[in-house]
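**Protein fold record**
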Amino acid sequence: MADLKNPKVIWAKGILFLLVGVLASAMLIAQAASLQVAVLLGISIWAFCRFYYFAFYVIEHYVDAEYKFAGLIAFARYTLQSKRR
């Protein structure tokens, strides 16, 4: 699969991800409408975003500047290979 290079398509993809996330969150909160569910959902989204930042920015800029991650599977492979060294 070729890399995405068209800025309009990249923006459209990002907006679609945002819409899917908002819709899924709204459906979860509507199904189990409580403050606890909303707070836990917010915390889980925040934690996964921080992990994503850690996996792609922190590791590349502060741990191993030579490694460029291609995705979460590549990060998992890198992590498993690092433990074997």
User: Anything to note?
Assistant: The chain is about 80% helix and 0% strand.
